[in-house]
């Protein structure tokens, strides 16, 4: 009997075919109110799940007694209760590395767009309002040779640090639970406490996972410690920031601007005050959203799922394996 798989995000046809050759697949193009009941029913009898951006709670997963692996098409796994999955013996696999450079590009795009007011001024041109040479009212601020403060210096943080230091001659300071000596050697990154980072960085950039520890880490007190020149960048998860405090800091001039790819609520509600602020560049969570990288992520997630269901070690597992893998080593 073929194992049953639920794909809850649309997969490229060639990758879906790799699954349908091996498994009985129920495919969902996202989960919404119209298909939620059918999705829950399919999950209840599944051996494997693959997809992204759907919160998986115990109410959904408790009935799924045969579930062996969830393969998320993302590096972040804050939509899962990892301890619950581990207790249940369910593997959680994810897609680190393949999206690192693309997401770092997005973060850097936000840094440049916010500092140089790219979106605001491009809209001015499109609206036909460019009628004479641009003067100080429309000048931006420099990025090169400024100080970048990275909160988190993992895979994506280090890729941003490389762009900043080697490409733009920026000084890099960072806050992390552990020192990252290779980034210190390669990019001159200096590890500091948060207070020093807030006080010294021209750009404060969050590249952390969302966890119980990091939720609302950037609060009103944090914004109060930043400088009026600070540009705040968030390319990781919206809930790491107290969004009301961010809005207040932007409105009051406590900080200069913000470049945001992620928000407390997504899609960002159309009435969000953030959309009224000219010093905000808001993107629709596009960190990894290029054709090449989204394909690579889906491919890695499919590899992870096939490996897990074959009793092999997926390339990237979040939770400690609760059972031995039949064959150790690389995925075929
Ligand atoms: P990673 O390699 O695991 O890096 C995470 C970094 O955060 C590490 O340096 C880690 O350092 C640090 N960290 C974790 N908890 C911390 C805490 N409580 N205090 C201080 N530092 C802490 O992950 P990554 O691949 O760079 O991805 C980071 C996050 O970016 C993902 O989790 C995801 O949510 C987000 N992301 C967003 C997009 C997007 O579309 N916008 C795309 C990709 C990823 P230590 O553990 O050593 O302290």
From TrEMBL:
Gene3D superfamilies: NAD(P)-binding Rossmann-like Domain. Belongs to the D-isomer specific 2-hydroxyacid dehydrogenase family. GhrB subfamily. InterPro entries: D-isomer_2-hydroxyacid_DH (IPR050223), D-isomer_2_OHA_DH_cat_dom (IPR006139), D-isomer_DH_NAD-bd (IPR006140), NAD(P)-bd_dom_sf (IPR036291). SUPFAM superfamilies: Formate/glycerate dehydrogenase catalytic domain-like, NAD(P)-binding Rossmann-fold domains. GO terms for molecular function: glyoxylate reductase (NADPH) activity; hydroxypyruvate reductase [NAD(P)H] activity; NAD binding. Residues 108-287 form the D-isomer specific 2-hydroxyacid dehydrogenase NAD-binding domain. The keyword Repeat does not apply. It holds the Pfam family 2-Hacid_dh. GO terms for cellular component: cytosol. Its EC number is 1.1.1.79, 1.1.1.81. It catalyses: glycolate + NADP(+) = glyoxylate + NADPH + H(+); (R)-glycerate + NADP(+) = 3-hydroxypyruvate + NADPH + H(+); (R)-glycerate + NAD(+) = 3-hydroxypyruvate + NADH + H(+). It comes from Pseudogulbenkiania subflava DSM 22618. Keywords: Oxidoreductase. The keyword rRNA processing does not apply. This is Glyoxylate/hydroxypyruvate reductase B. Residues 5-319 form the D-isomer specific 2-hydroxyacid dehydrogenase catalytic domain.
């Amino acid at each position: 009997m073929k194992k049953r798989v639920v794909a809850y995000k649309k997969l490229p046809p060639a990758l879906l075919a790799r699954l349908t050759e091996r498994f009985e697949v129920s495919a969902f193009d996202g989960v919404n109110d119209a298909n939620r009941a059918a999705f829950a029913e399919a999950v209840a009898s599944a051996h494997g799940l693959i997809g992204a951006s759907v919160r998986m709670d115990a109410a959904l997963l408790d009935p799924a007694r045969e579930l062996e692996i969830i393969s998320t098409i993302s590096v972040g796994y804050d939509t899962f209760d990892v301890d619950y999955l581990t207790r249940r013996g369910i593997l959680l696999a994810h897609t680190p590395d393949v999206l690192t450079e693309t997401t770092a590009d997005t973060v850097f795009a936000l840094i440049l767009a916010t500092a140089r007011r790219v979106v605001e001024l491009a809209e001015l041109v499109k609206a036909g309002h460019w009628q004479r040479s641009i003067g100080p009212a429309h000048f931006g601020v420099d990025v090169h040779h400024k100080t970048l403060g990275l909160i988190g210096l993992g895979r994506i943080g280090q890729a941003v640090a490389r762009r900043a230091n080697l490409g733009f001659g920026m000084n890099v300071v960072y806050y992390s639970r552990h020192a990252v000596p290779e980034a210190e050697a390669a990019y001159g990154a200096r590890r500091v406490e948060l207070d020093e980072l807030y006080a010294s960085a021209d750009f404060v950039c969050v590249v952390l996972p969302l966890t119980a520890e990091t939720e609302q880490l950037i609060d009103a007190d944090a914004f109060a410690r930043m400088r009026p020149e600070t540009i705040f960048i968030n390319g990781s998860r919206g809930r790491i920031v107290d969004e009301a405090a961010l809005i207040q800091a932007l409105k009051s001039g406590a900080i200069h601007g913000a470049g945001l790819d992620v928000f407390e609520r997504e899609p960002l509600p159309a009435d969000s005050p953030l959309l009224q602020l000219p010093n905000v560049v808001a993107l629709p969570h596009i960190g990894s959203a290029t054709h090449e990288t989204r394909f690579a992520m889906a491919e890695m997630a499919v590899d992870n799922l096939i490996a897990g269901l074959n009793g092999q070690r997926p390339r990237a597992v979040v939770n400690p394996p609760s059972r031995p893998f039949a064959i150790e080593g690389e995925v075929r």
